[in-house]
Specification:
By secondary structure, this protein is α/β, with parallel strands linked by helices. Helices cover 34% and strands 22% of the residues.
Length: 165
């Protein structure tokens, strides 16, 4: 089983969350981390990916343009059978007020045939440019473990008992 964490980040906050998620996933499954601008051909980037994690900052109450553009290359059923988890970074407050890139990403991923395995997750920033709210990197690690559990993989790592142990 292989994972890809794909993200957009304007001020570095989403990149830090993506890195924390990647490190947590890498303890259990081979995982690549890629900024959206590093993705060329969609089919090639997604080849061999069993778990796709996609995240970005909430901008104008939705998905950032740098993330939306490259994802538009996906065909109608391009993600059929792919297990996906989505996240965003956003300001504290109700999603009705702040919006949520993750909620919109979940809809977009389902439209392309993906199986969204956990509810969309938000990580809080304390200001428009950040920093991340205290504890959000740990929150990301725990969320990554929940993603693994949702796809039937028992997470390994410092907070977990080793597999087979």
């Amino acid at each position: 089983m292989n994972a890809l964490v794909l993200y957009d980040s304007k001020f570095g906050n989403t990149a830090r969350i993506a890195e924390a998620i990647t490190l947590a996933l890498q303890e259990t499954v081979p995982t690549r981390l890629s900024a959206i601008e590093e993705i060329g051909d969609c089919d090639e980037a997604l080849s061999g990916v069993d778990i796709l994690v996609v995240g970005g900052p909430t901008q104008r109450r939705g998905i950032s343009d740098p993330l939306r553009g490259p994802l538009s290359c996906l065909g109608d059923r391009a993600l059929a059978g792919t297990r996906v988890a989505v996240f965003d970074t956003r300001l504290r407050g109700s999603r009705l007020v702040t919006g949520s890139a993750a909620a919109r990403l979940a809809t977009l991923m389902r439209r392309h045939g993906a199986w969204v395995v956990v509810p969309p997750e938000s990580f809080i920033v304390d200001g428009r440019e950040g920093p991340l709210h205290e504890g959000e990197a740990g929150h990301a690690r725990l969320w990554a473990h929940a993603v693994l559990e949702a796809v039937g993989v028992r997470p390994r790592g410092p907070e977990r008992e080793p597999v087979g142990g």
